[in-house]
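User: Could you go from structure to sequence for me? I need the amino acid at each position, not a summary. Structure tokens:
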């Protein structure tokens, strides 16, 4: 039994010898002003994440998000808070100087809590391509550039697709230690 435990400990130490932990995330804010006199829609989003680099090609991470949307589409009664948890794996497939190109594959669970009404569950599964730019040995700028996947929100909609638009591009900052 002692040999099995010792072997398992050596295996874990060998796997983590070249590993690197990183943390970061994204922060966003926008205001939409409607021309028809409706209320302004404001959105605030905060998504911290922590990850683990196994080697130069593979990472695993988890992102926790909170978003607040006030006056969705200009309607005062349509405000909600959204909570999400998103574990994913990242595969880096190419590198050019300080830039690395990757694809994240994972799933997300979302809880939408409207100001008026019952909470709604949502799920997403898919892949997101992106680019990471190493600003230094410890700091990276990361951007996702689209999606390909499936999303469903309870009693609301099911969506399958791919694309790049202003809702699928994001930027984040990571710090490795």
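Assistant: Here is the amino acid at each position, in order:
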């Amino acid at each position: 039994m002692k040999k099995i435990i010792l072997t398992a400990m050596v295996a874990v130490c060998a796997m983590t010898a070249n590993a690197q932990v990183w943390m970061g995330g994204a922060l966003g804010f926008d205001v939409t002003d409607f021309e028809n006199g409706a209320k302004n829609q404001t959105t605030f989003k905060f998504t911290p994440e922590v990850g683990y680099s196994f080697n130069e090609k593979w990472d695993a991470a988890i992102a926790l998000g909170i978003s607040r949307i006030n006056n969705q589409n200009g309607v005062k009664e349509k405000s909600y808070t959204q909570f999400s948890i998103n574990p994913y794996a990242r595969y880096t497939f190419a590198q050019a100087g300080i830039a690395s190109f990757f694809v994240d594959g994972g799933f997300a669970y979302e809880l939408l809590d409207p100001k008026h009404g019952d909470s709604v569950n949502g799920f997403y599964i898919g892949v997101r391509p992106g680019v990471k730019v190493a600003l230094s040995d410890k700091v990276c700028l990361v951007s996702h550039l689209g999606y390909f996947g499936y999303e469903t929100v309870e009693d609301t909609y099911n969506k399958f697709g791919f694309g790049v638009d202003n809702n699928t591009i994001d930027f984040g900052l990571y710090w490795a230690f």
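One structural detail worth keeping in mind: Helices lie at 2-16.
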